[in-house]
Amino acid sequence: MENSFVAQSELFLHVLGRPRRGVVGSSRYACRLRQSLIDASKGSLRPPLLIRGEPGLQKDNIAALVHYGSADRRKLFVHLSASDLKGNKVKLLDVLGDNSLLVSGVDRLETLLQERLLKMARGQQKNFSGRVMFTSESSLPAFDKECRVIRVPPLRVRRSDLGDWLRYYLRLQSPELGWSRCPQLPEAVVRRLQNHDFPNNVRELEELVDRALRQARVVNRQQLPDSIPEEVFWTGERNDKARFDVWRWKPQLRELMCSPRLWNGLLFGVVSWVFVAVNLALWLGPQSRSDNPALNLFWAWWWPLILISYPVVGRFWCAICPFMVWGRIAQWVAPWKPFAWPHRDSDRWASPVLAAAFALILVWEEVWNLEDTAWLSSCLLLLITAGAVVSSMLFEKRYWCRYLCPVGGMNGLFAKLSILELRAEAGTCSGSCSSYACFKGGPAEGEGMETSGCPLGTHPAHLQDNRNCVLCMTCTQACPNRSVQLRLRPPAADLRTGMHIPYGEPGLMLVLAGGITLHHWQRLLGWLPIAPSSMHEGPLLPRLSISVLALAIPSLVGLGVNRRWLYATLPLLWALLLARHLPMGMLEAGILLPPGWPSWSADPHVLGFCQTLTVIIGWTASSVLTRRLLNVSRWHWFLASVAIALIGFGGRWLVSA
Fold first, then answer.
1. Partners of 63 in the beta sheet?
2. Taking the CB of residue 436, how many other CB atoms lie within 10 A of it?
3. Rg of the Cα atoms in the chain
4. What is the Cα–Cα distance from 491 to 575, expressed in whole angstroms?
5. What letter would DSSP give residue 195?
6. CA distance from start to end of the chain
7. Shortest CA distance to 651 belongs to which of 627, 624, 629, 622?
8. How big, in percent rounded to 5, are the helix, strand and coil portions of the chain?
């Protein structure tokens, strides 16, 4: 009895008073949050409440708004934090009666205590009939199931409310520091602070205003200013991400680029049938590249153009890839429902398989002369299409594209160099989205359309690089909050210190480099006694042996090399691949039309200049990336740049053959 009295007396020490403020702002996020609080306060059911949001959002004040706006306002509102619920203080949960309880930081509590709180939320604890509220910074599936969830959006996604927040805190704090009338706020301050992300949200903003007011008093000791100087508002270290939102600049582009009619017409009305026509031409038409326009289109146009496109649009080719167009068609007509993706790290086994498949394609291409044999080139296209079709019938979405497609693996690698990225604002997604339709699909909601979700199974707010983004715009179509942005950025922005290195991707880089040495094997290995006179004719075993040896040269040289150094050479690898395919593109691409029609072919000197310029661009970018990725001294950076230059000169000599 005495212990109960002591616990009840201590309970009053944790009573939370009336809310400090309401919901500030007039944006749709603020209006939605305000309406959610009104709905949670009404009614007699009093469901348990979970308020989720990032640190510094003063979620306890949000809970107080609900309590003091409800019929329970005359009862005690007991606030216990994770640190309060330790030791003997757990007994406070036994003496609550019909009062309301707020537990802050429930995600930091021990499992047993969480289970007890869940029982209280279900009304399964004796001597307790009040309402329970929780705050959390992370997702708790068990609590999400039992509670009504209110997500509090962070400040960085409510940038239009920032002026209201600043003026509110100026009105609140300036009288305490001597202002008889609230000072004015320059609009330039609001515009400048809207570029800051406020990682500590409201807490950081409150400290910023207090610091600005105190500094304004120091600057103007004799007379308090009527307007706060812009210089006193500072946010410490500036986090400049150097991004430019294309859709904010041209909003009409969003509607055009996200039109389902445009995408469906392009994919199923054009790409699918062009692919059929190309394969028919490869099988039924002439077999040499000089006589078959379809074969010329594949080797002299597609390869150079896709390499040129990587630094601009990244992996966009995968969005209009005919392999997966027919894979999607097969997925729709399949008599069974495809399985969900395997719940394991598929990269562990798929990446080596992908690299090995690319190596086999390169050997097949060189030994059997696919570049000048139309029906074999069609076999290559149909083989990759078969993989896409079978994978699509077995697994949902585009499992083949993400893990197994050799062309997709190359596209994902070079997409890291792109100046475009499609990303969502993480704060908007965590604070305002409950459907995650961009990731898993779902019906139309708000501005969002009905979609099946990201075809590669990624969330646009969680992307670390462009590897698994094909710019298909599905996430933008599904997003009800306009969170997804198409942004310009510096080239190769994905290659940075602390970057995630996917399993097996460095091996793919070495295989791609091996494709260059394999194509120009005569300059490297033509002196060997077992070297054949031609890679296309003669006994098969010597040809295969030399091709495998030539393909393996970069891997043998690269054994033990720092993986980050390999990524620093990625622009140079791209440049050498482009230089290797430029001769066919610049000398033969203009001979696409039948004899008698206009044609063009570049002068060999122009071709040589373009190859040299491409390699110089790749070497320059790789030297810059070496400094960024390896974080070495100037002397070591100079030596690394010299080594990269030697590789570049060697590659230039090789591709000139």
1. none
2. 16
3. 32
4. 14
5. T
6. 96
7. 622
8. 60, 5, 35
Cα–Cα nearest to 134, from 60, 205, 190, 199? 60
Coil/strand/helix, residue 448: strand
Q: Which of 351, 454, 462, 357 is CA-nearest to residue 403?
A: 351
Q: What is the SS3 string spanning 407-428? A: HHHHHHHHHHHCCEEEEECHHH
- Give the DSSP per-residue string, 535-573: SSSS-HHHHHHHHHHHHHHHHHHTTT--HHHHHHTHHHH
Domains of the chain (ranges, CATH numbers): 2-153 (3.40.50.300), 157-240 (1.10.8.60), 420-488 (no CATH), 505-655 (no CATH)
Q: What is the pLDDT of residue 237?
A: 47
* pTM, to two decimals: 0.69
Q: What contacts 265, CB < 8 A, 6 or more positions away?
A: none
Q: How many CB atoms lie under 10 A from the CB of residue 594?
A: 9
H or E stretch including 646? helix 634-655
What's the farthest any 2 CA atoms get from each other in the chain?
108
Q: What is the pLDDT of residues 58-88, one digit of tens each?
A: 999 999 999 999 999 999 999 998 888 876 7
Task: Tell how strand 49-52 and strand 132-136 pair up.
Answer: parallel
Distance CA 166, CA 145 (A): 36
Phi-psi region of 457 (alpha: psi -120 to 50; beta: other; left: phi over 0): left
**C-alpha–C-alpha distance, residues 356 and 362, integer Å:** 10
CB distance 461 to 423 below 8 Å: yes
Alpha-carbon 437 to chain mean position:
16
Tokens of 204: 């950081």
**Residue 432's pLDDT is what?**
64
**pLDDT tens sequence across 553-597:** 999 988 778 888 889 999 999 999 999 999 999 998 888 777 777
Cβ–Cβ < 8 Å for 119, 125: yes
CA distance readout (Å), 124 to 56, 85, 635: 32, 19, 69
User: In angstroms, rounded to a whole number, what is the distance separating the alpha carbons of residues 154 and 133?
Assistant: 20
Helix segments in 258-373, DSSP class H: 260-266, 272-284, 293-296, 303-313, 322-333, 347-367
